[in-house]
Amino acid sequence: MAEQYPIIVEHLDHWFGVGEARKQAIFDINLKIKKGSLTILMGPSGSGKTTVLTLMGCLRDVMGGSVKLLGTELNGATEAQNVAARRKLGFIFQAHNLHDSLTATQNVLMGLQVHGAGQEAKQKQAAHHMLELVGLGDRSSFLPAKLSGGQKQRVAVARALVSNPEVIFADEPTAALDKESGLNVVKMLKELGQTRGTTTVMVTHDNRILDLADRIITLEEGRIVKDTESGS
Ligand code: ADP
Ligand code: MG
Question: Ligand 1 within 6 A of 59 CB?
């Protein structure tokens, strides 16, 4: 199952707050995400998109129901299991979170250091290669201040991809980008799915990129109200 469906969500519920302030935010989400697919999560602000993404991405403890990520059950997982699961993931956020004092190459290298793999020269080569793939080969020595918004987000994409993750979670990665840069970022993620079998789940409000999605899931008030692939 994990081979074909890297993410399997069953009866997922989630609550925020304690005592009288406790409030259910997510209600009975069920999903099986196909390997190599690009899935988009849509819905109004506050509908639960980020909560679902962070639960699937092992960034938040699963409280109710089940998330199986690459074969690991996240409900009740130990910290060691969470760390091991996160190593197989790439994250891209709206705020690209680049380190201002590091060059593009050094920022991309941050995506490898947590993986603790290989030697320095090899890692640098991988980082540079990734920057070339996102069209920034000639800017690898630039600091973020010298890059445009779209270029910074492409560095963030390179950082998320350099470790060759099996699953990528992206939360509004194109929100700060112009139309063309946004499309390019999503096209890149789509291509990775096709060439490497990378699975991507992305939150977006951006209507312009919906055409690229294999599947579109719409949330409202913590529930799935529409799914272009319902039943699977
Ligand atoms: P979206 O990403 O779709 O805008 P979120 O997943 O961020 O929505 O939020 C879903 C619901 O959960 C909202 O009602 C929000 O107020 C609530 N929520 C999100 N994060 C927290 C938190 N850390 N503490 C309390 N409530 C939260
Ligand atoms: Mg959000």
Answer: no
Give domain status of residue 127, yes or no: no
Q: From the CA of 219, which ligand is nearest?
A: 1
Question: What's the 120 CA to ligand 2 centre distance in angstroms?
Answer: 36
DSSP-assigned states of every residue in 105-157: HHHHHHHHHTTT-S-HHHHHHHHHHHHHHTT-GGGTT--GGGS-HHHHHHHHH
Instruction: Output the domain CATH number for residue 12.
Output: 3.40.50.300
Q: Report the separation in Å between the CA atom of 34 and the middle of ligand 1, taken as the mean of its atom positions.
A: 26
Q: Where are the alpha helices (DSSP H) in the chain?
A: 49-56, 79-86, 104-113, 120-133, 149-161, 179-196
Q: pTM for this one?
A: 0.90
Query: Per-residue pLDDT for 232 more than 50?
Result: no
DSSP class of residue 163 equals T
Residue 90, helix vs strand vs coil: strand
Nearest CA to ligand 1 atom 12: 25
- Residue 223 is assigned to a structural domain of this protein: yes
pLDDT 10s digits, 129-176: 989 988 899 999 999 999 998 889 889 989 998 988 999 999 988 887
Residue 180 inside a domain? The answer is no
